[in-house]
Design brief:
- By secondary structure, this protein is of the alpha+beta class.
- It has 5 helices and 12 strands.
- A 6-stranded mixed beta sheet has the order 4-3-12-11-6-5, covered by helices on one side. A two-stranded antiparallel ribbon has the order 1-2.
- The longest helix has 13 residues.
- 33% of the residues are buried.
Length: 230
């Protein structure tokens, strides 16, 4: 049992027991999440398609849902790992979700220097700026399927928007804000309209959301990109 602590009840201190800190869960599942993050996600290193389930879904607060095909195309377009050769997620706080043994939660705090071209799609690239990125803490999660392939990847949920130099943005949008691809003057509503226009763009560049009819049926949310945020 933990040591008692004092709690105010009707103005009088009383002793109460503090519940123990929950265990972090399956170490093998956490190790696999860490391995995917560093070696296969397509963000910090080239993507490894075999890690992704066929019904894979990617979701961030302002991007997604993306199917496996669209996610891989988008990662290949940006080539974040080429634009920021020293990029690192600096992950911490890994834990298995007590309500879902197949889900691993953790935080990242991206760091890196923009020393290479950042792909923008359709042959366009943003040249190196040599600017350093200090990202805020972001919540990530990974859901594995029965074969230990990644079925869901969620990224970019900023826990403290006042840290870092990304203007409170996470994931790729945060990197773009820090190096000037997305100036702070670009308002959220305008950015959402630009994302909607990408629905009509031809194949060959990254997408911010897959066509609704292409999204796996198990993903039931109809929200796209930043719907409901602004």
């Amino acid at each position: 049992a933990g040591k008692p602590c004092l709690s105010m009840v009707a103005g009088e201190p009383s002793a109460m027991s503090v519940p123990p800190i929950p265990p972090t869960g399956d170490a093998a599942k956490i190790s696999r999440a860490n391995e995917f993050l560093h070696t296969a996600s397509g963000f910090y290193s080239p993507p490894q398609p075999d890690w992704l389930a066929e019904d894979f879904v990617f979701r961030g607060p302002e991007v997604g849902p993306l199917t496996k095909k669209d996610y891989l195309t988008t990662m290949d377009t940006f080539k974040i790992y080429r634009a920021f050769e020293d990029i690192a997620p600096n992950p911490f706080g890994f834990t298995v979700d007590p309500a879902d043994p197949q889900r691993v939660w953790f935080f990242v705090r991206n760091t890196g220097t923009h020393t290479g071209p950042l792909g923008l799609g359709y042959g366009l690239e943003f040249p190196p700026t040599n600017k350093e990125v200090q990202g805020p803490p972001e919540a990530f999660s990974i859901i594995f399927d029965a074969d230990d392939r990644v079925r869901l990847l969620t990224v970019g949920y900023v826990a403290d928007r006042f840290q870092g130099n990304t203007g409170g943005k996470g994931a790729a949008l945060g990197l773009m804000r820090a190096i000037g691809v997305l100036p702070e003057a670009v308002k959220p509503g305008l950015l959402e309209n630009v994302k909607r226009l990408l629905d009509f763009a031809p194949d060959g560049g990254g997408r911010t959301a897959s066509k609704p009819e292409d999204v796996p049926a198990w993903w039931t949310s109809t929200a796209r990109n930043g719907d409901g945020l602004y």
